[in-house]
Every structure is written in structure tokens, then in C-alpha cells.
Amino acid sequence: MKSLHIITPVKDSIDLTLETAKAVLESHITVPFTYTIYNDFSTEENTLRLEQQAKVMGFNLVNLKDITLHLSPNYLLVLKKTRKEAIEDDAGLLIVESDVVVKKNTLQDLFDGAEQRKDCGIAAAVTVDENGIINYPYLHVKGHEGEIYPEKKHCSFCCSLLTPAFLKAFDFDLLDESKNWFDVTISHEALNHGFKNYLFANLPVWHRPHSSRPWKQLKYTNPIKYYWLKFTKGLDKI
User: Fold this and answer.
1) Which of 23, 10, 92 is nearest to 51 (CA)?
2) Per-position DSSP letters for 177-207, written without gaps between them
């Protein structure tokens, strides 16, 4: 990898997104990098806030309404676009979702860890709550704090680096367009292509689960309503 392309997709969760952006931009990164927020049809008010903060904070901003008529979610479009750009620059594609706050060393350490493991397809940071306790989606990792190991389950894209070798090996144009989220599928494809996905349980990032998609909190507070919305509205296809 010659560099990092760091991205954050977002729709409307602007306060949290700016916390995410601040942490990314204040990271101690020695490798060349770009940081781009992909605004997925946020409201006009929130789009304006992002445009203003892009100038103040110094991140790149892509308003997806300027390049597609397809309504949110447009995660697949973002993944396809950024994969091609990363391949062109021999860069790692590092996804930091808008409900995540990284530490100053997280991103450089993920880069270094992936570089040290030539069979690495995805390098993922473990997620924790405000008290530093491992939380969703890595609850199964409890007991492995501080370890680095190949993850047999899928990696979440909360904070994950996809290496150039894997990006070149798997064409995202093959992904199922009927789905909304792709971390499970892409993780499995990395394994199918002979790579290993490493979970860095020594690199905790603060994750506020589903803060960018509040309706998903219903999964815990009102599961009947959650699954009714999921299946009747066709939401959250994984």
C-alpha cells in the first residue's frame, strides 16, 4: 500500500459524523492519506452544515445527489467508486463509519498491521462502548481483548481497512444490488479468495451502535416492530 483512502458514508447524523471526522483528522498518520465524507442525500440543512465544515475542517465532501438519482442508501455506489479509486492509487480503502470515534493511533496501526500480514484482506478494529467494553458487532470477541487474530466470522465495516490486493481480487460489481449493506458478503469473499481477515482487538474504537440509523435501535427495544419494518419495508438487507 502506498497510501490510504479513508471514507465515511453518512446520512443526516451530522453531529456524530463531525466527531468521527475530527478524530480521523487529528489522527497520527504518517502514510499519505485522503479523507472523504460521502453525503447520502442528507437534508438540505445538514448538507449545508457538511459543506461548511468541509471548508473549516479540511475533509473532502461528495454529495451523492450530484452523481446519482438513486435515493439512499447508496452504500454500494460508494463502495464501487472508492474501490476503483483506491486501486488506481495502490491505496488501502479504510472505512470509518459515522458512529465511530477512532484513537490517534488507530488508523496508522491498522495500516501497519495490514502491511505486516501479506495475506491480509481486511484489517478491522474492535469496537467498544464508552467504558471500553467490547460491544456490538464484536460481542463474540470478549475474552480476546488485546489480541490480533484471523477472524472466522465476518468483519464489520465500523472501522476496517480493505487492502489493495483484495480490492484487485474481488470486483464489487458482482455484489447483490438488492442488498443495503455488504460487510458480511465482502468479508466472506475475502476468505473465498484466499485472504485472511484480521481482527485487531488491541485497537479499540468507540462505537455507538446504530446511532447513524436510529430506527435500528428497535431491534433491542421493540424487536417485533424492527422485524416488521425490516421485512415489510425491505430495510437493512445484509
Assistant:
1) 10
2) TT-S--HHHHHHHHHHTT-EEEEEEEEEEEE
- Compute φ and ψ for 127, nearest 5 degrees: -100, 145
pLDDT for 123 equals 98
Provide DSSP, 26-90.
TS---S-EEEEEEE-S--HHHHHHHHHHHHHH--EEEEGGGT--PPSP-HHHHHHHHHHHHHHHT
Helix, coil or strand: residue 14: helix
Percentage, residues of the chain above pLDDT 70: 88
Q: What is the pTM of this model?
A: 0.89
Q: Would you say how long the chain is, in residues?
A: 238
Q: Which whole number is the average pLDDT over 208-229? A: 56
Cis ω for the linkage preceding 9 (within 30 of 0) = no
CA distance 143 to 216: 27
Q: How far apart are CA 156 and CA 164, in angstroms?
A: 18
The CB-side HSE value for 198 (13 A sphere, CA atoms) comes to 24
Whole-Å CA distances, 107 to 5, 7, 49, 169: 11, 12, 26, 23
C-alpha 30/C-alpha 90 separation (Å) is: 16
Nine cell digits for residue 209: 451502535
* C-alpha cell read off for 193: 479468495
Q: How far apart are CA 63 and CA 55, in angstroms?
A: 14
Q: The C-alpha cell of 39 is what? A: 453525503
